[in-house]
Protein 1
Amino acid sequence: MSIYQMGKNVVLALVVAGLAACASKQTETDTSASSNAGTDTTTTQPIQQGPSAEELARLADIEARKARVIYFEFDDANIKPEYRDLLAAHGAFLAKNPGLTVTVEGHCDERGTPEYNVGLGERRSNAIKQVLQSYGVQASQIKTVSYGEEKPANPGHDEAAWAQNRRGVLSYEG
Amino acid sequence: MKMRFLKWLSVLVWSAATLSPAHAALEIVITEGMDDARPVAIVPFQWNGTTVAPPQDMAEIIARDLERSGRFRPMAVGDMPERPFVAGQVNLAAWRNKGIEAVVVGKMMETAPGQFQIGFELIDVFKGRDKSATAMGSSAVIEARQHLVPSAGVRMHAHKMADIIYEKLTGERGAFATHIAYVNIDRSDRLPYKLFVADSDDYNPRVIASSTEPLMSPAWAKDGRRLAYVSFEKGRSQLFVQDIYTGQRQVVAAFPGHNGAPAWSPDGSKLAMSLSHEGNPEIYVYEVASRQSRRITTTGIGIIDTDPTWSPDGQYIAFTSDRGGKPQVYRVHLASGQTQRMTFEGDYNSEPEYSPDGKKLVMINRTAGQFRVGIQDLASGSLQVLTDTQLDQSPSLAPNGSMVIYATLHRGQQVLAVVSTDGRFKARLQARKGEVRAPAWSPFLD
């Protein structure tokens, strides 16, 4: 998992570095052009600069962090590979902002019994917490709460509803 | 081990007394009756008062109670050969010819504004010594009672009469004059989660707590007035104990992690619960008077121990644990700590409750993917699946051990249902708006 994740991050980092290089070259050209223009018979005006590398990375990060729900298999608290990028984005963001806290909710579908399902939901929220901690997030930044089957995202009673209800939710409110 | 629990909050929440009771009770649909239910007749009571009709139809309430037990088949009023009010007017032969085993007659009189004198006589039709065609019921009365009742207590009084009649005819104490608690979820409401207390026939439902956040796991103390439950109102679980008559409530557990699955000890002095603040859900026993608690299970990381329930003698706690991989029921001997597994049939057994005689265990059993109410004989270990409904949950026994109320899925909606502990009688409580879950049957109320 970590090697896979590292690979992904390296690729991302290279893309971002490349963009940054292009952007800075462009800036140099612009600067020399305007300085060559010389005297007060000529006026110069800056044009709107394209988004910086930092800005692009920030936007990408915000976009990644818009997704705050991950889904689980029935009776299972393992985090599926497709949610690793999502958790990596949140993990990096929280690690960079140690003043922020996040609440990780664990939820289940309605099959089984309510109190046992709270236990299952707790396993799910704890699994997410561990992944976040692996990115350097402090334990004190993460609150976990399991609602078991008591707070379904979809109040229906079929397979489609159950799939939406077996979930973990990251919440920055409060 | 000593532990710090939160102090009294003394928050006056929603006093039951200030709430006007919602009417429109749930209709009860009998889905499977007993062939050998005993034919009885509850004759409409004589009414003598300032209004045209009595405030409550005593005979109707008693008849529906007896019918809902599965043990009796009350005769329709239109089929009755006569409508006497006193035993002396009952023609035994007329009822014998209809195959009726027992007749109840009675009177209700308004003695003062808001006060009623209510009396009944129970007649054993076949036990009358005089078998002649003209023999009257006065010779065959096996129970007679008369009481003064204020108007607010009239309906509960009818249930008490039904209890007396049931006990006289079956030898088992009746459980009609009891309450049920449950959670109703109406997502169109500003406060969708409501904890209700209603009579055992679901009349007179009263909200005792409302919240934007989930409420779960109500559990009655043996005094029938304190209800423990879980509330997520603070964005995390907390365990409360609320007096249903004063509305006063107390936080008894608000640790990090889950605070859930309350269960009162038989003597009412302790509350067992499942807490996860030490890493994973484990069973604890909290002593109400001293506010001290003791950890009972030490299963360890990754395991879920929950749903504690006391044996009637208070010596054991049975609970759900997935220490063996799948959830099964175990019991721990509190004095020695010795623990043994109790359930072996099916790949999921959860939410155990001992029968009042301690000889059986009711639980949710999953066999072949179906979650159903099961009952296990503890001596033989044999399990009987009682229901054929879908996604059953939260079984709760009537205090006489005769019936189980539980939550189930019916036509895409969670509703309450009852089943007799022999599995032969089944009924469904027609849901009101929204979903109904987490039923808990109160103890005897006197």
Protein 2
Amino acid sequence: MGSKPLTADRKRQKLTPAQYASIARSDQFRKLIRAKKTFLIPFTIFFLCFYFALPILTSYTNILNHPFYGSITWAWIFAFLQFVMTWALCMIYYKKAAKFDKISDQIIAEKVR
Amino acid sequence: MDTAAFIMFLAIVALTLVITYWASKKNKSASEFYTAGGGLTGWQNGMAIAGDYMSAASFLGIAGSIALAGFDGFFYSIGFLVAYLVVLFLVAEPLRNLGKYTFADMIAVRFKAAKIRGFAAFNTMVISIFYMIAQLVGAGALIKLLLGIDFATSVIIVGILMTVYVTFGGMHATSWVQIIKAVLLMGGTLLISILVLHKFNWSVIGMFDQVKEATPLQEKFLNPGVRYKDGLDTLSLTMGLVLGTAGLPHILIRFFTVRNAKIARSSVVYATWIIGLFYVMTIFLGFGAAAFVGNGDITAADQAGNMAAPLLAQALGGNMLFAFVSAVAFATILAVVAGLVLTAAAAFSHDFYNQILRKGKATEKQQVNMARCASIGISVISIILALFAQNLNVAFLVSLAFAVAASANLPVILYTIFWRRFNTNGAIWAMVVGLIASVGLVIVSPNVFHPEAGKAIFVGQPWFPLTTPGIVSIPLGFIAGFIGTMLSRKKGKADHQVEFDEILVRSNTGMGNTVM
């Protein structure tokens, strides 16, 4: 998970508000924001629902009290799935973010000279 | 006093002081002091985040809660972990891209008014000090139990150590104390988990069967509902846990110790794996303690169950393992309080002193000196408050810090990054209402007013029925930010506000950040 400081020096430059505005309106930047939104909004809604489903189900129903295998109940399985979900989304985001980085590097390379 | 435990405590103290001595030579500039020059690798910072986050409340408190209450004790573990998705998806990278040393820096990039930075720094100090009082009270009680040193002396010892680390070693020492603590904590927990599994003949299914027989709760131990009977209260707690982490200033400051947003991201990924593995292992600690120490002995040592993990170590590996686990718990406390002192000191010296009072013109030397003085001041205040708070419930103080972080910090962070219309007025409303709502609701909650004498600070009927304020105060923080923004829209951007386009570009690409 290393990282190269490819555009470090260029990034350091201060831009004017007008330059920022023109980058914000550029196609590349819009593509970046769109790609991020398409990923982040549904995944954030999903993990919040998945997370709050556990306390809601344990507080207002008994369905998780049924045995899954031996003495292990569904509540423990659902709880463990929260961990699996967190790790999985973590890695999916990590993969996805590499693509965001590519677009963002292009924007920096094009717009900051 | 146990000799082996005493020697291991001394070894931890010696090791951390050596690190501090080594680090003290590096703290020439403000950037070195606050963020270790931004030079940590993803792996190092991931370990440091884990070391900063996994407090004694996690290690001792959750192990004890699971041992005594079964499934309900595990709720904290889940919330503490899933919270990292909020951090990873929404907060870590924009924060790194916009900020420099503190959480207030990030808000101040968009809103130039001094009062905005002032409120953000004030909230940082309030949250960090609440959290620190909880850690210090826990530390005092723990050392008293482990070594037989009285509460006040224990708190003062921990207080002096944390002051020394931060004052002399700054972020370099703090980070490395946290990294070493993370290694020790993971190692100790893994060792106990393996021993527990061995005792259960390597069968997780057998473990569930045996624990059910061993606890007085029987069936109920494996089902939810032993501790959290009120649905709203449970939701309020879980909401505070999952949203609070992304607003905790001592976690946020850890994203400035790496060079850029990419490394901030990879450090959260490492931290999420480490923290997740740790919280999975809390099951083995709790189940092991329930089966091999037993309910009676756990509550006899400490009513709240905080001694479950050390007692389990003693049952499994005798005095040596007991001493080791106790020393690990001690290291855990030291690493967390050091991070808190540094965070609160940075809010004072960077935000109040340098940015507001000196308009950003203080020299590097003046900044570092002020940061050192602030560290000492913050430590002294926290130690004094902790001495008075001896009888307060530690878990309640921690949940309060999480609730304030989620209510007062998270709304302003998310609005600043994502909402184009958000303005200065909205930011102030969000921070002030979030803080007052969360602290105020706790003051009128059953934690402070309880009909039975001895259950809370005052005897009386609580006005607010829930033990944690999150479910009311977090939405209030968001609503206040919205209303505050809408009420002042006509004034336009008269009040020193940067165009949202700039924030959007900078937070998403890292352009224009002065610290690389």
